[in-house]
Design brief:
By secondary structure, this protein is an alpha/beta fold. Helix content is about 40%, strand content about 15%. It has a twelve-stranded mixed β-sheet, with helices on both faces. Strand 10 and strand 11 form a beta hairpin. The protein binds ligand NAX and adenosine-5'-diphosphate (ADP). Homotetramer.
């Protein structure tokens, strides 16, 4: 086991000095650093005898009039993350934007979500980016939760859980929550240190049998057994709106392809950050669209 300590990964240095971080996903330590070897081992090559059905169908429930961009970015992350099919459920007024920006992505009306049989064919669902707080987000969340299969929950869907905590009890097991610090504290209460925040995440991930992706400079992925995986990729050139929307789409793409929610979260965070790192080598800032579009090159390089 290496002698790296947890405090090195926290912006406030708040962890007790005795907490050691193990190297690699197979480490027996509670806190594990994700290594390049881990990610190479997790990623599966695409098979020669395969078709779009082999790689799953993801549904993105996102966007409203003023934040259609968030839905498009999320769908872009999903598309470039390799889902066989991506469908976006957005308000109808976003259709021209969707067809223009992402002709590969299909459309499902918001009304169609009310008929639960329309949801059966999807291998994964992501919900939240740009949904807003005015639209009846609760109805959309109920639709996503109705199947009892993992859901990727981000942004305004997390804000709704914070407002209506009774929905927490009906989150399907294996779902992936992707809060940044403010969203996390909105949901689980204010925290004064990062160490305390991580302990709450460990408790909640176990209690609700979910995966929590606590986003920051180093992102912490906490699984259902309270293990904490630390992602080291990513950089401050990525500190720009829409970056989290792409990550959400990427997690949904990987779950659609058959990765477990925990593996999907680990792989997505690492690849998303590596994409930003590769681009930032010669850029002051990288946009979320650029990060999404560079994902296939990062995935291909991992197979070498
Ligand atoms: N093109 C678009 O339409 C975009 C829409 N977006 C969507 O717009 C909605 C609202 O986004 P907002 O940016 O207003 O709300 P956020 O909840 O993302 O941010 C609210 C405030 O929290 C703070 N904050 C964010 N991340 C933090 C962190 N890691 N640590 C500490 N403080 C942090 C920021 O100062 C920010 O002003 C969301 O649904 C989001 O998905 C954004 O994703 C950006 C792109
Ligand atoms: N300074 C940074 N270092 C590493 N990663 C970063 C940094 N800033 C942002 N990111 C990454 O970008 C994403 C931002 O997500 P989020 O805060 O949800 O953005 P948004 O809501 O604007 O889309 C996270 O995956 C985070 O890890």
């Amino acid at each position: 086991m290496s002698h790296k300590i947890l405090s090195n990964y926290l912006p406030d240095n708040s962890a007790p000095a005795a907490i050691i971080v193990g190297e690699g996903l197979t480490s027996t330590a509670v806190y594990k650093l994700i290594t390049a070897q881990d990610v190479k081992r997790l990623l599966r090559p695409r098979k020669s005898f395969s078709h779009k059905g082999t790689y799953g169908h993801a549904l993105i429930i996102a966007g409203q009039e003023q934040t259609m961009g968030a839905a498009l970015l999320c769908a872009t992350g999903c598309l470039y993350g390799g889902a066989g099919l991506t469908t976006a459920s957005i308000p109808a007024l976003g259709l021209t934007a969707l067809n223009t920006a992402l002709p590969e992505v299909m459309y499902l009306s918001r009304e169609a979500l009310e008929d639960r049989t329309n949801l059966e064919k999807f291998n994964s669902i992501a919900i939240g980016p740009g949904l807003g707080r005015d639209e009846p987000v609760a109805g959309l969340l109920q639709a996503a939760f109705s199947r009892n299969k993992p859901v990727v929950i981000d942004a305004d869907a997390i804000n709704l859980l914070a407002k209506e905590p009774e929905y927490l009890g009906s989150i399907p097991e294996g779902s992936v929550l992707t809060p940044h610090m403010k969203e996390f504290d909105g949901l689980f209460g204010e925290h004064h240190t990062w160490f305390h925040r991580i302990q709450t995440a460990r408790e909640m991930a176990k209690k609700y049998q979910i995966v929590i992706v606590l986003k920051n400079q180093y992102t912490f992925i906490i699984d259902q057994r309270s293990s904490v995986y630390i992602n080291q990729t990513g950089n401050s050139a990525m500190a720009q709106g829409g970056m989290g929307d792409v990550l959400t789409g990427l997690v949904a793409a990987l779950i659609a392809q058959g990765y477990t929610p925990s593996d999907a979260a680990v792989l997505a965070c690492n690849v998303h950050g590596s994409s930003g790192d590769a681009l930032a080598a010669n850029r002051y800032v990288v946009t979320a669209s650029q990060v999404a579009k560079h994902i296939p090159e990062i995935l291909k390089a991992l197979l070498k």
